[in-house]
Amino acid sequence: MDPTISVSKGCFVYKNGATRANKRTPSKRKRSETTPSLLGKELTSQPFYAAYSECWNQIHSHIVQLQMASNARTLEELMDFVTGERTDNMDSGEVLPTAALLTGINQPDHLKQFETFTQRLHTQKAARVCVLQSRDCTTLKAAVESMVYNLIDEQSEPVNLDEGDEDEGRERDRKRLRRTQCTMKHLHSWYANNYAGGDKHGALVVILPDFECFNASVLQDFILILSAQCGRLPFVLVLGVATAMTAVHSTLPYHVSSKIKLRVFQTQAAPTGLNELLDQVLLSPKYVFHLSGKAFKFLTHIFLYYDFSIHGFIQGFKYCLMEHYFAGNAYALCTSYSQALVRIKQLTHEDMETIRRLPSFRPYVEQINDCKRIIAVLTDDDYLKKKLPQLLRDCLLHFMLFRCCLEFFTELVGDLPRCPLGRLRRELYVNCFNKPISEQPEYKECWQMLSFMSKAEFVAKLGRCIARTELFLTEQIAPLELGDACSDLMRAKLQALKQLLNDVELATMELQTAAIEADSLTDGAPLSDLTQVASRQELKEQLLLRSKQDKQQSTSEFSRALNKILTLIETDLVLAHLRPLQQAPPLHEIYVFSDIATVRRNIIGAPRAALHTALNNPHFYMQCKCCELQEQSQLTSTMPDLSVVYKLHLECGRMINLFDWLQAFRSVLRTGEEQEENEMPQDQIDPQIQARFTRAVAELQFLGYIKMSKRKTDHATRLTW
To answer: Where's the Origin recognition complex subunit 3 winged helix C-terminal domain (predicted)?
Structure first.
């Protein structure tokens, strides 16, 4: 008899000499090996992928450093609280040390913050950490078991890759902890065995990242249990509060809140973190990739009006970056100037044609007066490659000058009353990139406010603008590859502003009497007394002359100097460099992503349209031959039952008769051959078909397309049109 055949059914295992797997070895292997890309080598070896990887790695590393610096202060305070309470809570009786971390409403980013805090505790070996989710703590028994299991289980310990084989063998021989053993008694014995003697009492940190989602009664009993054990176990509770401290006070009554020693910690607000990310990373002149005004506004609106998730914003920006570079090797030129010069030589004819198809390339060709040069630019790849370095240099300088002038302009108009153009740099970036800033009514309002400022206020404001721009040139522009050329152009403009600002400081407020006396005469006659006017026409002329005289009397030396410097700012900075994307130099599309339609279609889902497409034409997603339709209105028996029921309900009105619906469903499923072989009476329904119909109708009701009618029991009400 074959050894794998038995009277009873069973499974036969062949070890083939295999031994028990080492739990530490796979972790080492995973850490040492790099994760392979999902893309094939034919894509990863292309220049555009290399440019994308380089750009994203630089931006991502900058973002990580910024976020670590932003959260460092709060994490350090929280670390000090945990380590400080570790030595005090053993003698505090039944008072549980509790930290309330106000994280804000950006729920997708909360777990990342607590993960960073947990890693830091593990790195410093300061405490054992347990993170409890509300979904795992529906009952008090489940909450206690999850806490004990996570505190004792070996997976909660930090992995030390430098341990020897002896330690690995000990970890391998350790038995798996069962859920039935997860009790407070077992936790006491485990803590006594591992932290017995001396002052090496490690704190037991319990983190509840979604405090508001916990059941109130379960949470209250859980806190009372922890506080009762504080005399023997050094528990420290950390609450992640997404709303406000009123949620803690309303959830915990007095008999529970009196058992905790609460301390509140405040994390950085999500809008503040976004502004830092935009100002220091995405709007930094260090990176040559830019978002158009509409794409930039789209991503910020998703953040401000949907989720408040900085991680989601970063992923949206990464998607824009991928869409930009994956358009072809021509976009590999979106890199530093020296690397772009090297990659120009690697461009093929298809890449050159991609460059010629850019929208800004046509105006560049039209401004060429020589026909031979036009033909060479359009047909000769080598000739165009010789022109590309200068075109790319003009684009890079344009965006660097744009960023410098944006810094000046933000300081100039960012703190005006009511902030007509916006208070933040990102708002001014969008306004300047979308359309000409000088044509906007808010710009004229800002210029009017600047002209109404007093002498001291205007001089101080313009001094801050110049100082801030010079500091930006020194810290951000000078280290760049083309920073010297940009700095020379910008410093010359700032020097001219300094000279005019000096004239404004020295200007007086006295009226120019000579100009007033010369303008007070009209046709050689002085202004007459209004009491001596004989007619209405003469009165009108005298009033008009007096209005001109009053206007001229208000003009002083300071006013003329002020108008002169405002005109210089408008012409040399605003109109010259804060130009919209349509007026940017040729080939600016290589550096700017503006395909907002693709981003909107892929980032913001349309669930109703997707459901309609899936139910109306299942072949669109399933790609199976049995569901392939010649026409959209076609019905076949091979389609899923839900699709058949959905397409039948589209043919009905507001009220759907369930019996007629069932008959139509049966007629679709039963083919002609089946009807001839298994002819059944009209009023008798196959139970299998009826069961399939009932399940499909229930699924359609679950999706929200229909609901059962209360007035007519044999009818369903259609909810969509």
So the answer is: 608-721
